[in-house]
Amino acid sequence: MTVHIGANKGDIAETVLMPGDPYRAKWAAETFLEKPKLVNEVRGMLGFTGTYKGNPVTIHGSGMGMPSLSIYANELIRDFGAKTLIRIGSCGGMQPHVKIRDVIIAMTATSLNTPSMGLFKEVNFAPSADWTLLHKAFHAAEAMKLTPHVGGIYSSDVFYDERPDLTEQMTRHGILGVEMEAAELYTVAARLGARALAVLTVSDHLQTGEALPSSERERSFGDMVQVALDAAFPS
Ligand code: HPA
Predict the structure, then answer these.
(1) In this model, does residue 218 exceed pLDDT 90?
(2) What is the pTM of this model?
(3) Residue 19: its pLDDT value, please?
(4) Atom of ligand 1 at shortest distance to CA of 158?
(5) Which residue CA neighbors atom 10 of ligand 1 most closely?
(6) Nearest CA to ligand 1 atom 7
(7) CA within 20 to 30 Å of 133's CA: 31, 88, 186, 226, which one?
(8) 34 alpha carbon to ligand 1 midpoint, in Å?
(9) Domains in the chain, start-ordered, CATH in brackets?
(10) How many angstroms separate the alpha carbon of residue 80 from the centre of ligand 1?
(11) Is the CB of 16 under 6 A from ligand 1?
């Protein structure tokens, strides 16, 4: 047990899928895993472990934003031996060719700040995805007839952004979408010797103002779970 994860050693699998929302973790575990078992509920941050095609998998909420994700990623890797961490979440589209419902597989994550940034002092570390996971996820998404885009995303500290000029700079530099967790996930994984990836559905669009209706969110979330599982366990 750790401060934030009430699981016993051995309760957490080496492969962990991390949605922001703990109830999404519950839904995904009950929908995709065989014999899902609740392994954490400290502070309502639900985590479940089961198997997928016989492979042990944990699906654990990260909470919203990098400070929250950082706590869980650190403890999952350091204390429970997680080796592959895949964020599954939503993002806002930032390019005209990136449409609502499309899937973004984040190769890199730009940020203004991350909880790890103090470590680097004058260095601008470039958080990047694990290549093998990224490659497998791309092919899995294509095979599922999703529309995957691979490239850079922006991990923001704020949802209600008061700096439209920053969004404009990100868009000018080809950033595909904005979310709030991946840069820290990639950085913590790099530091602690784990593999990481973020697979995101475009749920809203910063340029068009469109948003995915809630009736469709569950299906698109399910598609991401499938992409993440296929990336972690290619057949
Ligand atoms: N901003 C930040 N995070 C997000 C967004 C957004 O527009 N959409 C989904 N996650």
Answers:
(1) no
(2) 0.97
(3) 97
(4) 2
(5) 91
(6) 92
(7) 31
(8) 31
(9) 15-232 (3.40.50.1580)
(10) 30
(11) no
